[in-house]
Amino acid sequence: MTERRRVQLVVNGEARTIDVDVRTLLSDVLRHELGLTGTHVGCEQGVCGACTVIWDDNPARSCLALAPQAEGARIETIESVAAAVAVGGGDTGFAEGAGGLGALHPFQRAMHELHGLQCGFCTAGIVMTVVAAERAGWSRDETLDALGGHVCRCTGYVNIRAAVERAWQELGLTR
Amino acid sequence: MRSMHATGVPRPRYVGQRLPRRNDGRLLRGLGRFVDDIELPGMAHAAIVRSPIAHGIVRSFDPSAVEGAALVLGPSEIDAATHSVPVLWTLGVQLQTSTRVADGRVRYVGQPIGVAVAGSRYTAEDAVDQIVVDFEELPIVADAEAALAPGAALLYPEYGTNVLSAFEAGDSAEHTDTVFAAADRVLRHRMHLGRIAGISMECRGIVAAPDPATGTLTIWSSNQAPHAIRDAVSEVLGLAQHRIRVIAPDVGGAFGLKDHAYDDELMVCLAALRLGRPVKWIEDRSEHMVATTHARDDHVDVEVAYDDDGRLRGLRLDAVRDTGGQFAIFGGGPLFTMTGMVPGPYTWDAVRSTAKVVASNRTPLGAYRGFGQTQAALVRERTVELVARALGTDPVELRLRNMVQPEQLPYTIRTYITYDNGDYPTCLERARVLATQFPPAPDDGRARGLGYCFYVQMAGIGNSTTNQLIGLGIGGHETATVRMEPDGSVRIYTGISPHGQGQETTFLQVCADRLGLDIDRIELIANDTNSTPYSAYGTAASRSMPVGGGALVLAADKIAAKVKAIAAEMLEAAVDDIVLVDGAAAVIGTNVSVPIARVAHRAWQGFSLPAGIEPGLLETAAYDPVSATFSYAAHVCRAAVDRTTGEVEIEHYAVVHDCGTIVNPLVVEGQIHGGIAQGLGAALLEEIAYNADGQPITTTFLDYLAPVSASMPDVTIEHIQIPSPHTPGGMKGMGEGGTNGAMACVVNAVAAALPEIADRIDRTPLSPSRLWELLQSAP
Which of B1, B288, B640, B745 has the fewest CB atoms within 10 Å, i.e. is most exposed? Predict the structure, then answer.
């Protein structure tokens, strides 16, 4: 019924070609075409920030873009932030599981240690914004301001802010 | 290792620790599994047909123009295929005790009237657009006032009224009149607690997967009570419960909203059964704002009788709840709970409420964090501050003067509820001290005020017979099974349904201490009706720890007793001399021990067991609490208000609270933070609004303002721990407390900052425009 389009983009460092309806949202491509379900959709109105990904180094709402708009884009999702943890039998790390705490980004680790997440639905978007802020050299206060682009219904934000502060301390970001 | 008291009794090793949550890793990595993450072979996608009008009758539902849909069901087909949905709480004179999934009438914008199923969500939504529905429009009942007006249109003509239930609570009219007549003064005020939405960040959603080969239906849904969902699906679709499996995968927040099967979810189940293939439906945010239950919308007339010396005498409420188009599962329960808990921590001579729950052409109300206790705190604590103002007394002193004293506990309040234990005055006095430590206010021209709230929270309601007596059709108990495997590792099976509250960690902390095990040796199994014990509530009503945790303690202790009995035989010692500590069963005061893993192996192999001991280590315990637990807290905050714009900032916030034995302070503090944000949101920001046609005008996060980081101050929290005399383990429930305290605390702070309008604050939220208008008309 609607026109289809071939779209080439780089997702988490991997070149991908997809064939989609032109009206398909980028968030739906990531989640349902590429199986990257860590990106969550909270409003499809561009407000809540849950679906935030890094698009050519900038945080962006993946629910506000149609897939063809991402032609040639470099997209990073939550799945790329922490290095993969080996999963195997015996003592090779399976007991911890792929959801373990190894190799987390300092902000992810601080979120864990300081209880910065409860249901975990908004978390991926927040992590992507904070990681982009760190890369862009934003100060702690600028990053705390950037949290304003995210709605979290569980935590009251107190521990998320504390996690930003701890991560900036650990990363030696003095501002 | 230090694990023993001098007496040789193991002391808690995990309970009380600030243990980060064990399930964080996968959520932080994006490896959670929420309902929309589920993909099944052959799965189709549903979209819901919703009413665009507030009140009417469906004259025709015509899907003939639909192209490419696998199935379309309209109201008449749905009505013919479904039984009624029971309302589980019956209060006073109640006309509505069940509802229909689709009865051909529409009573609010967004009401589901049909379902279309197609190959993708996109094409299912196309199909919905192609369905032509013709309505006979009916006069709109815009709100509770309109519903009660003489000659109002009736949402249910068969009832002859829009009052779905009416009840009284507390003292008799005669006794209350006597108390009021004897008091020195009476003060009256009115409060409308604005309609709000719970807005879980994950909207609702369901995957219904029938297996025609076995005649079973598996449901993954974003819910907080899998057994309650199964109850409803079974009842409405006529499938036996053992043929239905309900799983709550990771759930992105619920807050009471997801405690029952909604009509649209039942339509999706019906469609899946008709098609014999899996069907997924994911609610979008615009739907969520109109089709997921709202909260509050309570109008309360308050009269308080008091003496010149500040003694509170009587409290009289007349409350009307605008419950919207139909009852959800718990009917008028939140209003009833408000009337029950409105006495709070004070020693009144009379408390009486009359209440009406009224239908209007708005989205139905349902459960939401606080369940009436937030309203109780707001109504009472605002009233107390108004009395203090009228008397020229310090509001904290007025509260202290009227408070139940520690030695009076257990204390039965005027609504026949008996509080357990605690020290309310010390709690409030500590909060007053913390308020003195707020930094001095900068000289920025803004008005400032301190607000307080003290509440007692009924948490973990029960027992089951009490529920029955108050017309609540579900029991108040919880069940836990503890299974120690042959290698000594343990699985806990609970009917509690975690979705962010951290039971994957806290339940393990409780269990590890009872069994002397390393926490890595324990897992929690929850959220699946096929493996977990029945629970009518799941995770709700602040009852996970006091009731579910209580059951866990009892079940774990049964396992411990059996392990000890077998170990005693192995070690040739007396059972009473065995302690479980550091993964071993040890003879107290000696070096003699055996690893628990060896005991477990022997138990399951059945080798040389003591006489009368059955093989295996599998124990179940139900805990039906003697009574609810009663946590309490004092909240205090400082508001800064810009008189030129009406904008409010809550600058500083402190909480002193007692929830009995704290299993994990990190988790408890997180619950308080999140609760405060929701109470603050209701006080200042959040409001569902309708126009005169019954059209909702707040259907996005741009119109409906949820608190963001800048809305929330940091919070100082001080714990008091007086263990519950009832709960095995001493825990009191607390999950809703932050919300209960924050709404009144914030409203009181704003009122204190703006004394010129403090008497006229009569509705929430206190938005900038509302405050500005009040300030403009201030004398």
Answer: B1
Q: Is the pLDDT of residue A86 over 70?
A: no
Indicate which of A40, A121, A147, A155 best probes the interface with B, i.e. most B CBs within 10 Å of its own CB: A121
A27 touches chain B (CB under 8 A): no
Q: Per-domain residue ranges for chain A?
A: 4-80, 106-170
CATH number corresponding to A106-170: 1.10.150.120
Query: A153 and B30 in contact by Cβ < 8 A?
Result: no
Q: Residue B642 CB: number of other CB atoms within 10 A?
A: 16
The residue in chain A having the minimum alpha-carbon distance to the alpha carbon of residue B288 is A43
Check CB contact under 8 Å for B29 and A120: no
Whether chain B has a CB inside 8 Å of the CB on A52: the answer is no
Closest approach of B232 to chain A, Cα-based (Å): 25
- Give the Cα separation of B83 and A87 in Å (integer): 48
d(CA B223, CA B232) in angstroms, rounded, equals 13
Considering the domain delimited by B367-459+628-776, tell me its CATH architecture. 2-Layer Sandwich (3.30)
Instruction: Name the residue in chain A with its Cα closest to that of B198.
Output: A153
What is the CATH code of the structural domain delimited by B24-32+477-623?
Answer: 3.30.365.10
CA distance B202 to chain A (A): 6
What would the two tokens of residue A44 be? Answer: 């499809």
A154 in contact with chain B, both atoms CB, cutoff 8 A: yes
Class of residue B377 by CB neighbours under 10 A (exposed 0-12, middle 13-18, buried 19+): buried
How far is it, in rounded angstroms, from Cα A161 to Cα A143?
Answer: 9
Say which CATH architecture domain B35-138+199-291 belongs to.
Answer: 2-Layer Sandwich (3.30)
Residues in A touching B30 (Cβ below 8 Å): 36-39, 77-79, 81, 124
Question: Is there a common fold for A4-80 and A106-170?
Answer: no
More confident residue, B289 or B6: B289
CB of A48 within 8 Å of a chain B CB? The answer is yes
Inspect the interface and report whether the beta carbons of B122 and A21 lie closer than 8 Å: yes
H-only helix segments in B354-438: 373-391, 395-402, 424-436
pLDDT at A92: 40
Angle at alpha carbon of residue A60, lines to A56 and A66, rounded to 5°: 95
Distance from CA of A137 to the nearest CA of B (A): 21
Q: Model confidence over B486-517: pLDDT tens digits?
A: 999 999 999 999 999 999 999 999 999 999 99
A47 with B29: Cβ contact below 8 A = no
* Nearest CA-CA partner of B518 in B441, B596, B613, B446: B596
Query: Domain segments of chain B: what residues?
Result: 24-32+477-623, 35-138+199-291, 367-459+628-776
pLDDT digits (tens, 9 = 90+) for B394-410: 999 999 999 999 999 99
**How many C-beta neighbours within 10 Å does residue B510 have?**
29
CB pairs under 8 A between A and B: 191
Give the separation between CA B172 and CA B194, rounded to whole angstroms.
Answer: 29
Distance of CA A123 to the CA centre of its chain: 8
pLDDT tens track for B472-482: 999 999 999 99
Does the structure's ipTM exceed the value 0.85?
yes
Q: How far apart are CA A141 and CA A128, in angstroms?
A: 17
Contacts of A38 in chain B (CB under 8 A): 29-32
The distance of Cα B534 from the centroid of its chain, to the nearest Å, equals 19
How does residue B6 score in pLDDT terms, banded at 50, 70 and 90? very low
Best CATH choice for the domain A4-80 from the list 3.10.20.30, 3.40.50.10860, 3.90.226.10, 2.60.120.10: 3.10.20.30
Distance from CA of B361 to the nearest CA of A (A): 25
Give the Å distances, CA to CA, from B74 to A9, A160, B292, B306.
42, 46, 20, 58
User: What pLDDT shows up at residue B127?
Assistant: 98
d(Cα B618, Cα B490) in Å, to the nearest integer? 10
